[in-house]
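During the no-cost extension, the postdoctoral fellow (Dr. R.K.) reprocessed legacy sequence entries with the updated structure-token encoder. One reprocessed record is reproduced below for audit purposes.
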Amino acid sequence: MAVPTSERGESKFQVLLDARKLATHTLRITANKKVFTENFDDSLIKDINETAKNIFINASVANSIRVSDNISCMQRLELQQNAILESVRLILLIQLARSLFHLPARRVRYWGGIAIHARDTIKMWYIGDKKRYKEFL
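Re-encoded structure tokens follow.
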């Protein structure tokens, strides 16, 4: 029997879509030279882009690991944790960019919202996997 839409949870694939959306949005927004002027050292923009890419890569690689033993379980959970930590890092970098580049509040709310949503969905995926693979922990 089919599960009603209202009772369905988010799929792991949605987590990857959220991480990809965050990475692509971040890369697009930081490529805008009208917003991210070259008045400051380029290192902040590079850090922001690298962090966003790492979130997507860590989540994708974690998803590709098929858990069959303790080692594969630990690898998957570690990558998920790294993606969560990188999400927190990106949120902090967005706050820093807002101050330095005088980003409008609405832009920061939207961008930060995407980052927070990605972090939260990855965190829920991590918690679900810890329960699912508790026999390997």
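The helical segments are 12-30, 43-64, 70-101, 105-132. The CA atoms of residues 58 and 132 lie 19 Å apart. The remaining legacy entries will be reprocessed before the final report is submitted.
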